[in-house]
Amino acid sequence: xxxxxxxxxxxxxxxxxxTMSGAKDKVPAGESTGLRGPYLGQDPPGGDPKIxxxxxxxxxxxxxxxxxxxxxxxxxxxxxxxxxxxxxLEKEGWTAPESAAFNGKYRNHESHLAFDNKRMFFGSSRPxxxxxxxxxxxxxxxxxxxxxxxxxxxxxxxxxxxxxFGVEGPSGAGIVCTxxxxxxxxxxxxxxxGFGDANPKSTSIFHPAIAPDESLIFFDDNNGLYVSFxxxxxxxxxxxxxxEIHGEQKATIPSISxxxxxxxxxxxxxxxxVSTSVLERIxxxxxxxxxxxxxxxxxxxxxxxxLYNNTxxxxxxxxxxxxxxxxxxxxxxxxxxxxxxxxxxxxxxxGLGVDCSKVKKVIVSHIHDDHxxxxxxxxxxxxxxxxxxxFSYPQSASEPHTDRSDSDYLALLKRLKPSVSKxxxxxxxxxxxxxxxTTGMIEDQSYEQALLVPTTKGLVVLTGCAxxxxxxxxxxxxxxxxxxxxxxxxxxxxxSTDPARVxxxxxxxxxxxxYIGPCHCTGEKAEAIFKDVFKDDYVDIRAGMKIRxxxxxxxxxxxxxxxxx
Length: 565
Fold this sequence. Notes:
By secondary structure, this protein is α+β, with helices and mostly antiparallel strands.
């Protein structure tokens, strides 16, 4: 009996020592803890979360977060406060946490080692400001001098080298992706990841964590965790809250093990981990897929009514330089752009029987008078709709004078506010309505956004003037939504473009979309080239016409104003 008791006491003392083996007063930083095996020798969790490596990584009185294993499983990085710590698997076992060599004298956190095991991304306060994402590369002697890569925070990467990270915008935080091509990273592209019905009040997405195969992405709202699964068409499904995993505990800063088997996250100043097999239970519910498919099926009822264009379908519809289009689907009405001359615009709106009281959201492609001319008259006829404007960077309250309506952008915003429920300016792409998306800004100097509607047939893309380039917009739309394009309509801004160049653009677009509908600022000569290239898939856009997706081939009709102008 005494021998058994001594055995139990000895076991308890040994267990206690191992629990505290990472503490500074027990094992010096960088020295062996005696822990062996994968994942710091910890017993893997199942579907119930566990604190990761208590006493070694998760310690009393410290704030630990942001777990990141190297692809070979021999290094483990995490944050203790604003210092990146590292444990290494050596012959004697795992070493106690020590400060990572690239820390220097700065506050650093949110480290992530890419799958090539050479590139380490991390956030840092080192100059120049603002806070951004830095890159250091493994060398024979350790790590290279860090270099600043992007504005943003919390980088995460997939096996093929794609890097996802968070960015801040005026309408909230979002996720972008940059791809490694020919040794260089491409311009970051906004990802259409949103909370949807899972958290309709939240506008900011933080801390993305992409799966190795990019089949899913975790993120948080600074309070709880979410996951979005990749749909069959390549787009991101609606967010699924993971409260059934972490309960009512606050849970943030997710990361995924390189083998994809474990989800790590921070809660109550400790690092937790849980098996990703728990996601199968969530996937079986299938609710996110049902909602996404319902949205696309609803979008198949999409009807586009051209309210304003350079040419018209009949004498009873006013033709004028400018553009506007009404979108109706699933019982929702959206208005894209507002023409040039207020009286002409409103005459077409009334003549085409538009019920402005049903328009709950108005989207403006860019702040030019041939797209915003009738905005005040329109808003006066609506019932305080939400107004979505492109993100802009005015240098002062009054920009250099021009004859366009963007000459005093801040004053314009002030005039608009009393007529709307809210003004949303988005730099990044994402959902702005039930099944309606924006590309966000294609080029900062253009201040222009395009409108996207994913349907079961493919993506519908609406442009105002396509100042950043129609090819760039369509490619951005495909990458953002991960879906093939079905129909592109709007101004392409090719009036002064060389015909040979227009033909090249048309031929490339022929490979990117089924139908094409250039209008407004495209120019008659350019439209003729598109018609020659697309043949029966060319849609002659005119004010007063309706375009229906419906079942079967897309149809158009040219119904004159029932009440005249």
